[in-house]
């Protein structure tokens, strides 16, 4: 069964759908966590500490966070590898273009591949910026996300990189959520409007929620 | 009507092809698109040139033999087969681009004719039932719920033309394959091979070098028989179910 899953176009797409939904659920939680910045430094700094103590006393300090990190890295790699392999296959299956061609699919549909690449690059930058502090613009302080976030969004490039990535994420989710439902066999004619609406609302809420943070810093609401 | 045609000409599978321009005059709005091409071919034959090769058979929209990508649309601007497309869909003086189906799994044989035998091999992998044939059985002996009968019939309408593959940016055969699977898998007659059918047909589809689905929906827009995009969703569901049931 594992071989059929991995060898098949439908199977690889299933891996993409499941890993995509795992990442999507994480994004919802991540966005809610980020919004705590609007309630002051104590709120969000305390939340950062809780991320390390969650699961205690069953788990030890930071175990929960590490489990989450492993799950997410696995999801990103599985998703990216399948996206790459399927895209290679798709391009090979249609070697010659039509002389008379017209783009028809929606913008979100046509940008899944490049949008995905933008997201992958962003994830690397984002971790080096706010998790490890390697490329951080101010003096990075562990467990002080409030000040770290203000530092990042006080630079023009920090704002630009972040906002471009969030917009790419919104488009990706807009086509991705509905696609995943079809891949997993959950779509149908009667359920289509509900699925499309949930995907659109999810994409809009995630985009607005994530973008509100740099906008908050830029407008001085968070300082 | 007077028209300018730009037609893909290719001597054989190995030759380089290119678009060639022709003028045709005296085309009636009531002609079908294929009759318009017949007119062009008659003129080419009189001039001693090689006529344009294109596929056709029933010319009544039921066999799936005719193809052609017309101005970038598989089967042209109307939702029907090329043989059922009429020249009233065009204007006097139009320039019309005519190309073959494009997909790695559908190599060009000559001009506008492509080899669609990959579809036959997908059918051979499981697009049948193994009941012994003979005299037609008593219809009432196998009750089929109305909703299932409708679902099956909707998918049975697929004529295997390949427009879905031609329209798909990934050269995927998902719509065709899903139509054939759903047609049989929902019926009691198709039940004995329900799992092997979907697993084997999807495996053969991949084997033939068709691409994967990115849910752009261009296949369902091009399909002359209105096979819906949800057909692919149904196939995915059957495939996942079969993987759970069959351990191999
Ligand atoms: C590592 C970076 C990423 C790459 C390279 C990438 C690439 C892709 C590609 C190429 C597709 C298929 C598009 C299509 O079928 O038209 C896709 C689908 C999808 N992506 Fe991503 N993506 C990435 C990150 C993400 C993230 C962060 C999420 C979380 C929200 C996500 C969620 C989804 C979902 C739910 C699907 C639909 C799966 C399906 O079609 O069944 N992706 N992605
Ligand atoms: S699904 Fe539609 S477009 Fe594809 S082969 Fe069948 S009839 Fe033709
Ligand atoms: S020639 Fe038979 S469907 Fe067009």
Automatic annotation (TrEMBL), chain B:
Residues 1-102 form the 2Fe-2S ferredoxin-type domain. InterPro entries: 2Fe-2S_ferredoxin-like_sf, 2Fe-2S_ferredoxin-type, 2Fe2S_fd_BS, 4Fe4S_Fe-S-bd, 4Fe4S_Fe_S_CS, Beta-grasp_dom_sf, Helical_ferredxn, SDH/FRD_Iron-Sulfur. It comes from the Bacteria. Its cofactor is [3Fe-4S] cluster; [2Fe-2S] cluster. Transmembrane segments: none annotated. Residues 149-178 form the 4Fe-4S ferredoxin-type domain. PROSITE patterns: 2FE2S_FER_1 (PS00197), 2FE2S_FER_2 (PS51085), 4FE4S_FER_1 (PS00198), 4FE4S_FER_2 (PS51379). Keywords: Iron, Iron-sulfur, Metal-binding. PANTHER family: SUCCINATE DEHYDROGENASE (PTHR11921:SF41), SUCCINATE DEHYDROGENASE IRON-SULFUR PROTEIN (PTHR11921). Belongs to the succinate dehydrogenase/fumarate reductase iron-sulfur protein family. This is Succinate dehydrogenase/fumarate reductase iron-sulfur subunit. The lineage of its organism: Bacteria, Bacillati, Actinomycetota, Actinomycetes, Kitasatosporales.
């Amino acid at each position: 069964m594992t071989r059929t899953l991995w060898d098949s176009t439908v199977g690889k797409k299933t891996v993409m759908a499941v890993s995509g939904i795992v990442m999507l659920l994480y994004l919802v939680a991540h966005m809610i966590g980020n919004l705590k910045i609007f309630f002051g430094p104590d709120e969000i700094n305390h939340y950062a500490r809780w991320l390390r103590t969650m699961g205690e006393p069953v788990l030890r300090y930071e175990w929960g966070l590490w489990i989450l990190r492993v799950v997410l890295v696995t999801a990103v790699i599985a998703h990216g590898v399948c996206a790459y392999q399927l895209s290679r296959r798709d391009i090979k299956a249609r070697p010659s273009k039509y002389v008379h061609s017209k783009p028809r699919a929606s913008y979100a549909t046509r940008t899944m591949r490049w949008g995905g690449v933008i997201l992958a690059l962003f994830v690397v930058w984002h971790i080096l910026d706010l998790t490890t502090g390697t490329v951080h613009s101010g003096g990075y302080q562990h467990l002080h996300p409030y000040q770290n976030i203000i530092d990042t969004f006080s630079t023009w490039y920090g704002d630009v990189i972040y906002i471009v990535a969030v917009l790419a994420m919104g488009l990706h989710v807009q086509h991705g959520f509905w696609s995943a439902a079809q891949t997993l066999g959950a779509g149908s004619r009667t359920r289509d409007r509900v699925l499309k609406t949930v995907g659109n609302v999810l994409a809009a809420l995630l985009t607005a929620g994530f973008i509100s943070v740099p906008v908050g810093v830029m407008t001085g609401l968070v300082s | 009507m007077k028209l300018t045609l730009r037609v893909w000409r290719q001597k054989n599978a190995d030759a380089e092809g290119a678009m060639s321009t022709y003028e045709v005059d005296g085309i009636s709005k009531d002609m079908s698109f294929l009759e318009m091409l017949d007119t062009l071919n008659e003129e080419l034959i009189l001039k001693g040139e090689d006529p344009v090769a294109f596929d056709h058979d029933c010319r009544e929209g039921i066999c799936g033999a005719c193809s052609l990508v017309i101005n970038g649309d598989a089967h042209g601007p109307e939702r029907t087969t090329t043989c059922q497309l009429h020249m009233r869909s065009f204007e006097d003086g139009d320039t019309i681009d005519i190309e073959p189906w494009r997909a790695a799994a559908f190599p060009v044989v000559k001009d506008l004719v492509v080899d669609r035998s990959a579809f036959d091999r997908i059918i051979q992998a499981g697009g049948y039932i193994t009941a012994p044939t003979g005299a037609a059985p008593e219809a009432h002996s196998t009750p089929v719920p109305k909703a299932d009968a409708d679902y099956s019939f909707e998918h049975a309408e697929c004529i295997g033309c390949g427009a879905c593959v031609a329209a798909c940016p990934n050269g995927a055969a998902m719509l065709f394959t899903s139509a054939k699977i759903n047609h049989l898998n929902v019926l009691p007659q198709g039940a004995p091979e329900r799992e092997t059918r979907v697993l084997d047909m999807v495996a053969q589809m991949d084997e033939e070098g068709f691409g994967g689905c990115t849910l752009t929906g261009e296949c369902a827009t091009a399909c002359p028989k209105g096979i819906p995009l949800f057909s692919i969703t149904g196939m995915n569901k059957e495939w996942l179910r079969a993987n759970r049931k069959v351990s191999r």
